[in-house]
Amino acid sequence: MTSRSQVRRLLADGLGYEEAGRRLGVPAGKAFLIATGLPADGGGTPATAERRRPGMPGRSTQHLAGPPAVNPTSDDTTRHWLRRRAVADVQMRRAARGHGVGPQGERVPDGVRDLTDVLTHDHDRLTALVKQLQTLPGARQGATEAQRRRRRAVVDVLAEALASHVPAERRWLWPLVRETLDGGDRLADRALEQDDEGPDALAGLRRTPPDGEDFDALAERVGGQVRRHVAFADAVFARLRQTVPQDVRERLGAEVVRAWRDGPPPPGAQEAPP
């Protein structure tokens, strides 16, 4: 039979209860009970006298009393089961087929011409794409092949949207900010710095296969950049609405809508000044 002195001798040598119990052939919780006279799974906070007993550790002892904690969602068997359940669910498959990649509806609703409203609607579309990218399971969540293809498609749509959104802001929004707002140069310079950070991450994301964790990390980085851009621009829009006359905002907004509708000019063509 294991004695208290045997357990305490091993503890004095610097061993923990798990190792002491293993050497003595008893469970760790029983080794704790022998050494202290207290159950390892005792509820509540030990009294001061109990905390002073020889062998009392300075942290919780619950782990000594039961099996190690396991997160079932990290188990490959569980992930495979969840995927099979999702694939077998008719309603989930029907919903997935009916929900296309990208935001729904027109890029700019009819009648919207205010520059700040035009760009706000486009920001909503960018945000919706980022949410789709974050909602779809990635490699760490055991994404299926169909989900990986869908994530890739969302990235392509996001890149296409940014390819016309960013130039529109550079041509019409930030020059207006420089001309009309106090501290406009500082605001515009900060926005352009944000824009310069985006292409490398987005290009890297498009080059990365969607079946690895590198894709997940780059997707999170691009999503963060989009969210920061939208929050910064929204604060600027509020100031423009207070400072710039509505007819000026509507004239510039109409220019943006026209540029998006007509597409980029052919190579070699000169752009008209804003």
Task: Please provide a written account of the structure.
The protein has eleven helices and no strands. The protein is mostly helical. The protein has two domains: 4-64, no CATH class; 104-262, Up-down Bundle (Four Helix Bundle (Hemerythrin (Met), subunit A)), CATH 1.20.120.520. It is elongated. It starts with a helix and ends in a 12-residue tail after the last helix. The relative contact order is 0.09.
List keywords for this structure.
about 65% helix; 2 domains; elongated; disordered C terminus; about 270 residues; single chain; Four Helix Bundle (Hemerythrin (Met), subunit A); mainly alpha
Tell me the number of helical segments per DSSP (H or I, 4 or more residues long): 11
The CA-CA distance between the termini, in Å, is 91 Å
The tally of domains stands at 2
Enter the CATH topology name of the largest domain. Answer: Four Helix Bundle (Hemerythrin (Met), subunit A)
Strand content: under 5%
Extract low-pLDDT stretches.
266-274
Task: State the CATH superfamily name of the largest domain.
Answer: nmb1532 protein domain like
Secondary structure layout:
Blueprint: H1 4-12, H2 17-24, H3 28-36, H4 48-51, H5 76-88, H6 90-98, H7 115-135, H8 145-180, H9 184-207, H10 213-243, H11 246-262
Helix pairs in contact: 1-2, 1-3, 2-3, 7-8, 7-10, 7-11, 8-9, 8-11, 9-10
